[in-house]
Design brief:
15 helices, two-stranded antiparallel sheet, 43% helix, 425 residues
């Protein structure tokens, strides 16, 4: 029976956190996360933090949802080309005070950013808790305070101070946040917001947080010092339709009364409940897409011709054999014509593509890209030769995802019409 359920219930990927036990590494995920996911009807699949795993994420398919939670600080070079203006003494003070978090884990960064980008590209439901919210913001182009105590206090002149972590009262520590009206968070906690007040008390286990919020997101809560404590994408939030992209800086799953499993507020588990609801809807939608559809043979023939054209172009670009273009002009032509006929984008599509990093979508330069001159290619190879393995892996993963998206959109345009493709984007 259990094996049958695992084949039926949707799958939520959760990346483990690594620690040391008996001189060996041990990976773990907090029980509250797992219990809530299971209780609302999904199966948690733990992704272990193992070297090189970020190159194997497709092995975890099918992916119906991703929950990312606690962990070490994100490598600041991933969101800030220049480190914050800390003195040597300040950096040492931060490392000493937050020693359990300031050790950078680049493999975990690569795994989680890879999963976050996968969710953003495919509209897979994503819930980020604490570090997971920071990963989501960074994946979309946002930045972080590398130390709230030092950076945010300077920003607001020290006029307002909030203690965001208390090692002496780890689970019991709370601070107020102001909930933004007409957001999911407001909906979940509205019964606890008495007399028109918009404040609730939340737990806090972090010394970093959102500095610049990525363009696509809307804040859901602020702490008194101005730090964003929750955000979501309103264009990707509709749990009933399988849409859920959200980050919470606090831990609602741990907001429980002393010596009890009772939640501080009835709304605390709502994030998990609505997230799993979206995961279930997404899985059903994906299962529906997999049903066999009889395809018009003439359209299928055209699709194969265009796919072959793109494949030839990709192989030529990868191998650097641009000199063969004249010999395969007729086979490249269908792909070029298809792009030239489909360059018009709506404002919403352009916004989405920019958010995903696709800043160029111009069919008229299709053949020009294939004919890239030797100097430009040499320069590109030189630049990539100076990149580290993690950066190259991220780049490879990104372009693989973009290629998959192009293929999916191509199928939709040919078989289902442009209207379906626009809706998918």
């Amino acid at each position: 029976m259990a094996s049958e359920l695992s084949n039926i219930l949707p799958r939520v990927l959760i990346v483990s956190r690594r620690t040391v036990r008996k001189n060996k590494f041990v990976d773990f995920v907090g029980e509250y996360h797992l219990d809530l996911i299971v209780s609302y009807g999904a199966v948690p699949v733990i992704v272990p933090r193992v070297n090189g795993l970020h190159m194997l994420l497709e092995s975890f398919e099918p992916i119906h949802g991703v929950l990312l939670c606690e962990g070490e600080d994100i490598d600041p070079t991933l969101y800030d080309s220049e480190l914050s203006d800390f003195s040597h003494d300040e950096l040492e003070e931060i490392k000493k005070l937050h020693s359990s978090d300031t050790t950078i884990d680049r493999e975990k960064d690569n795994i989680e950013l890879g999963l976050a980008k996968l969710c953003l590209e495919r509209n897979i439901p994503y819930l980020g808790i604490c570090r997971g919210s920071q990963v989501l913001n960074v994946a979309c182009g946002g930045t972080l305070f590398q130390d709230i105590e030092k950076e945010l206090s300077k920003k607001n002149g020290g006029s307002v101070h909030v203690n965001h972590i208390d090692y002496e009262n780890y689970d019991g520590h709370r601070h107020p946040v102001r909930v933004v009206e007409k957001t999911p968070l407001h909906q979940w906690f509205k019964d606890s917001l008495e007399g028109g007040e918009m404040d609730i008390l939340v737990n806090s286990y972090h010394h970093q947080g959102v500095k610049k919020l990525a363009q696509r997101f809307v804040p859901m809560a602020f702490s008194p010092d101005g730090l964003i404590e929750g955000f979501y994408d309103p264009d990707a939030y509709n749990p009933e339709e399988g849409k859920f992209i959200m980050g919470l800086q606090f831990h609602p799953e741990r907001m429980r009364r002393n010596d009890s499993d009772d939640f501080d507020y009835p709304g605390c588990p709502s994030a998990y409940q609505e997230f799993v609801k979206a995961v279930i809807a997404y899985e059903k939608k994906q299962s529906g897409l997999k049903k066999t559809v009889k395809i018009d043979q003439e359209l299928e023939k055209k699709r194969k011709i265009i796919v072959k054209s793109f494949s030839i172009a990709k192989d030529m670009y990868s191998a650097g054999k641009v000199g063969l273009i004249s010999h395969q002009e007729s086979e490249l032509k269908p792909g070029a014509e298809f792009l030239e006929a489909n360059v018009a984008l709506s404002v919403q599509q352009e916004k989405r593509l920019k958010q995903m990093g696709a800043t160029v979508r111009n069919g008229s330069v299709y053949k020009d890209r294939l004919k890239m001159n030797e100097e430009r290619e040499k320069l590109a190879r030189s630049i990539m030769g100076k990149m580290n393995v993690g950066q190259l892996s991220d780049m490879l993963s990104f372009y693989h995802l973009m290629g998959q998206i192009c293929s999916d959109v191509l199928d939709k345009k040919i078989n289902n019409g442009a209207a379906n493709a626009i809706d998918w984007l």
